[in-house]
TrEMBL record:
It comes from the Eukaryota. It comes from Akanthomyces muscarius. This is Short-chain dehydrogenase. PANTHER family: RETINOL DEHYDROGENASE, SHORT-CHAIN DEHYDROGENASE-RELATED. Pfam families: adh_short. InterPro entries: NAD(P)-bd_dom_sf (IPR036291), SDR_fam (IPR002347).
């Protein structure tokens, strides 16, 4: 799909008006205290879903829950807090276990939270690049903890085919992603335990590596667990005015404010990926674009999604294995 079509997309065709009654369905939306995540949570709660607002600030969660309740006073849904810091891998297991103590199902998990271009050299609690930790490693680990309950949900009698989903929020890869999606260390291009993703000196290149990483993780999840009943989608939510631009300079933020759409439009993209009935099991691992359409990734990303045995670069597989390696010490199940 052309870059121009993603910058100036047609009007959304799947909105809150098309969402069925979600009473009894359980959803987690990371970063749902503000911005796109908040707008998505608002749509789901209005349709009576149980929505977990997942972010690191309990105060922000409480404020969001109060606001969401006021926005839909007749909702029969439930709003709950899920306190975790995606940039601190040690917080994810306890948060996931607390969720599992309360819920026996998980219908849709939306990896919405993210960070873009923080100060150069920013590191996570475990010493990883802050963007890579927040945008990829944290979501990867959270999904590992929650995959069993998603699989059980997909097997329940009331589960429609392809209705249990994980949404990985990416970005517009055309014209912006580094060649191959992610640059690995080592230089030989072979999968090994030493070749971590290289932190890019260009701030936007570094951010875009993590967004290609989200596409890789959605694809690999689909490839590795084809019979799980869980559909994984990556999505470019669109160009919007959100807190994601908080680290940009004043001139750039002003330009973005003029061109970009309100956060609600990005929520439509995520809503499509997570809830549209037009998404089927055949779309597992696919990429969606604004404001809710199936799209395609650039050719060099397609090559990264393929293994070497199929003429690709194997970058997607290599990235999954690196994420698995880095999060393994924190993947301790009760």
């Amino acid at each position: 799909m052309s870059m121009l079509s993603q910058i100036f997309p047609p009007s959304p065709t799947f909105t809150e008006e098309h969402v069925p009654n979600l009473q009894g369905k359980v959803c987690i939306v990371t970063g749902a205290a503000v911005g796109v995540g908040y707008q998505l949570a608002k749509m789901l709660y209005a349709q009576h879903a149980t929505v977990y607002i997942a972010t690191r600030s309990a105060a922000k969660i409480d404020a969001a829950i109060s606001s969401l309740r006021a926005s839909a006073p007749s909702s029969r849904g439930v709003l709950r807090a899920m306190v975790l810091d995606l940039s601190d891998l040690a917080t994810i297991g306890p948060a996931a276990r607390a969720f599992l103590d309360q819920e026996s199902r998980l219908d849709v998990l939306v990896h919405n939270a993210g960070i873009m271009t923080p100060p150069a050299g920013s590191k996570s609690k475990q010493g990883h690049d802050l963007e890579m930790a927040t945008n990829c490693l944290g979501p990867f680990l959270l999904s590992r903890f929650l995959q069993p309950v998603q699989q059980r949900t997909a097997s329940l009698p009331d589960a429609s085919p392809a209705a249990v989903r994980t949404v990985w929020v990416a970005s517009m890869l055309d014209g912006f992603s580094v060649h191959g999606g992610i640059v690995f260390g080592g230089g030989d291009g072979k999968t090994d335990s030493s070749g971590a993703p290289v932190v890019q000196s260009n701030a936007m290149d570094n951010y875009m590596q993590t967004k290609a990483g989200a596409v890789f993780l959605a694809h690999e999840s689909a490839q590795r667990f084809p019979d799980s009943g869980v559909v994984n989608m990556s999505v470019h939510p669109g160009l919007m005015r959100t807190e994601l631009q908080r680290h940009q300079n004043r001139i750039v933020k002003h330009a973005m404010g003029v061109v970009f759409k309100p956060a609600k439009f990005g929520a439509y993209s995520e809503l499509f990926a997570g809830f549209s009935p037009s998404i089927t099991a055949a779309h597992n691992g696919r990429f969606a674009i604004p404001w809710g359409r199936l799209g395609t990734v650039p050719r060099h990303i397609e090559e990264a999604l393929k293994g070497r045995e199929r003429g690709g670069t194997g970058a997607s597989r290599r990235f999954w294995e690196w994420c698995e390696q880095e999060t393994a010490p924190y993947f301790v199940q009760a």
